[in-house]
Amino acid sequence: MQSMLSVLFLLLANTTAGYLVPNPSGKYNVTLTTGPLVDYSRNDPYAATPTPRALMLSVFQPARCASTVPALAMPNKTADYQGEFLQQTFNISADLTPLFLEARLPVCADHAHKRCSPLDDSPILLFSPGYSIPRLYYNVLASAIASEGFTVITIDHPHDANILVYPDSHAVYNNVSIQDSPTWDAYTRAADASFVIDQLRNATAMAELLPYRGARPFPTDRVAMLGHSIGGASAIIAASQDPRIRAAINWDGTIFGSPPPPGLGLSEPVRLMSQPVLFLSHQDFLDPSWLSTWPLLRGPKMVAYVANTTHYTFSDIPSLFEAAGQSTAPFADLLGTIAPASVVCILTAYTTAWVQAAFAGEKGGLELGEFPEVETLMKGNF
Length: 382
Known about the structure:
By secondary structure, the protein is of the alpha/beta class. It has a single domain, classed as Rossmann fold. The protein is built from eleven helices and 15 strands. It has helices at residues 2-13, 76-90, 97-101, 139-146, 186-200, 203-209, 230-241, 288-293, 317-323, 332-335, 340-360; strands at residues 19-20, 29-43, 52-65, 68-72, 103-108, 116-118, 124-128, 151-156, 163-165, 171-173, 223-228, 245-251, 277-282, 301-306, 374-380. The strands form three sheets. Strands 2, 3, 6, 7, 8, 11, 12, 13, 14 and 15 form a ten-stranded mixed β-sheet that branches. A three-stranded mixed β-sheet has the order 1-5-4. The chain has a two-stranded antiparallel sheet with strand order 9-10. The radius of gyration is 20 Å and the shape is globular. It is an enzyme of class 3 (hydrolase). Pfam families: Abhydrolase_6.
């Protein structure tokens, strides 16, 4: 089966138009802008020489526009790197490079020429990816959430993603020493998130990142953070350290480490916090680190799992297979057996409902919808 998939992907790679993922299901279309944010006040702890910490972002904004155009889901240099990375990481023979190389996202056309209207006052969600996984593995999910009326900003953390390509085409690669950190660098990711929030209020920085907006800051009174794997753990740690993050969502992420940096007076990575926290896990899994963190969460909190999923279902890979007309069945051990469209629907519904309730200050009456694949395992402070 894998050899047949390889042949089909080879044919796909020779199709210049690539393939288009479905339009997001929300009431808005979505704009997409990518670019760097450089923190000149911090040196990158994983750079070989003193270098300012330089993030790469994708900004998905909900917008009213009449038409969309296909946009590359990944720069070619990033996509070319993924086939060998996945083969080595998961010991598979199929070369999945074309799956990423040929993926196209439907995004609003001509937003730079005022032919569409992004919602500049929409709530903001920051997204942190899994360890060694570029932010671009979550484009479909970010776009789906944005289409519900949220500005979603996905963050590549340098030397954490397997490859991070900047606009001038130079790249930095994963530094495996990150795994030597007790928290797998979650504190550095948390600092990255706080820096992004700082810059959202910086009119000059926003004019450089989003030239079509001009020199206008974003309101930061409705900011939440989510992430996958260590990105989900980082979202909780960041929220516990920065009260501007008003809700945190952890997609299947272990909270690594026990001692925080000296001087915090804490025994766990997460401080006492009052913001709502949602944990979503893969099938039949309750992470022990969530149980140890549970008493520190003084606001609404919930743990639920999604049936027929694995850790890697919480990404765009199943959706890309479906959009390319390929079955995920040969990779069921890695990706689960749940329908890809169902994963997008569930993660979007739970994420948007959770943060909407947090911004409204609601402790009860959370409307999450009815999904037979989802089972609530723990719930508190409602």
